[in-house]
């Protein structure tokens, strides 16, 4: 039972790492990732301001 849990945790870790690497590769660089996050935040702010008007 313990070996099965350890195996599942290892797989979950590998899958998580793969997802993070794919997300970062889509941005090409960490700087690009930061710019993408910033743009997303600006969009949220604009929609929030529109909703309040």
Number of strands: 0
Distance between the termini: 57 Å
Regarding quaternary structure, what we see is: single chain
* Helix-strand string: HH
Category by helix and strand content: mainly alpha
Residues in β-strands, percent: under 5%
Shape: elongated
Low-confidence blocks of residues: none
Mean pLDDT: 84
Main β-sheet description: none
If helices are DSSP runs of H or I spanning 4 or more residues, what is the number of helices?
2
Question: What structural keywords apply?
Answer:
53 residues, mainly alpha, 2 helices, 92% helix, elongated
Structure commentary:
The protein is mostly helical and 53 residues long. It has a domain at 25-53. 92% of the residues lie in helices and 0% in strands. The protein contains two helices and no strands. It has helices at 2-27, 30-52. The chain is elongated and about 55 Å long. The mean pLDDT is 84.
């Amino acid at each position: 039972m313990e070996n099965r849990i350890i195996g599942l945790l290892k797989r979950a870790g590998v899958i998580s790492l793969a997802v993070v690497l794919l997300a970062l590769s889509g941005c090409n660089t960490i700087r690009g990732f930061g710019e993408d996050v910033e743009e997303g935040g600006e969009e949220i702010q604009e929609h929030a301001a529109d909703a309040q008007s």
